[in-house]
Amino acid sequence: MRVAVLAHEKFPDRAKTAVGLLRYSDYEIEAVLDRDNAGSRVSDFVPDVQDAPVVAGMADVPEVDALVIGIAPIGGGFDESWRPDVTAALERGCDLVSGLHYFLEDDEEFARLAAENGCDIWDVRNPPDDLTVAKGVADRVDAEVVLTVGTDCSVGKMTATMELLEAARERGADVGFVPTGQTGIMIEGWGTPIDRIVSDFAAGAVEEMILERGDDHDYLFVEGQGSIVHPAYSPVTDAILHGSMADRLVLCHEAGREVVHGYEEFDLPPIDEYVDLYEDLARPVHETEVVAGALNTRSIEDDETARGAVETYGDLLDAPATDPVRFDPDEVVDALL
User: Fold this and answer.
1) d(C-alpha 101, C-alpha 106), whole Å
2) Same domain, 165 and 302
3) Is 52 found in the same domain as 26?
4) By residue range, what is the domain housing residue 202?
5) What are the DSSP calls for 172-191, one per residue?
6) Confidence at 76, pLDDT banded by 50, 70, 90
7) 165-218: pLDDT as tens digits
8) pTM as predicted
């Protein structure tokens, strides 16, 4: 499917959905909408993904099948400055794909234009209605469950999951992917947005996905969300940790990150404390351990310095570590398989 991705004023550093789609999805991305960087190309910012022109708006987009909202601001709201591009897409007969908490299908104008022009609207974060509480049975599946967890939100958990998944599959391992957030769901075409679930049912929603796929694969790699220390997002982290009953954890961190993203008055704890925090929280439900680390070194320019940061991170975890985008993931994959 040919798509345009809306990422106004956020591409690439604050548009993780857009970058994730460019790196991992099967979409043919014809353009990225970012009025601040119009006239450039994706490759000017992110060299190792699909390339596409960066344009100011839908008027500059070639023929596409859909417009994807490729950014998810804190709170997941809809920015009214995007409305002209969304309406233009619908008037051209394009479908909409959105990972916002604001459901585009409930917007009166968008719903009318979609009906008039035969367009579909897929609100990725709109969860199923038949969810229940967890029963604590995810550990009964045949698959070994691997979960990425984070020191903070937006440190690269989805990216680490996808990179390690691909590396494991290249070895011939039978690995399934369990998407828990909007980007993973868009890439895979299935999944449940755990940050949109009523709290009583969140762990149950994760458990249901584990049970659905857990006997079809030898391993399940589960996309983590948030962080156990995040003042806003820790509930979704806990739900995934307990609902998945993960056997192994990969702790993800961004090099240089010292305070909570978007909540800078909160300092991050020392790295080594996270190991105990996650393992102790998981233990009453299902014993697990942090067996590896993934360090996002995008802020470090030269490879030698980045390798040093990865080595230091591994020492702090007392476990193998890598930047799976930048360096060889073999030692980490060994720990997972």
Assistant:
1) 11
2) yes
3) yes
4) 138-336
5) T--EEEE--SHHHHHHHS--
6) confident
7) 999 999 999 999 999 999 999 999 999 999 999 999 999 999 999 999 999 999
8) 0.93
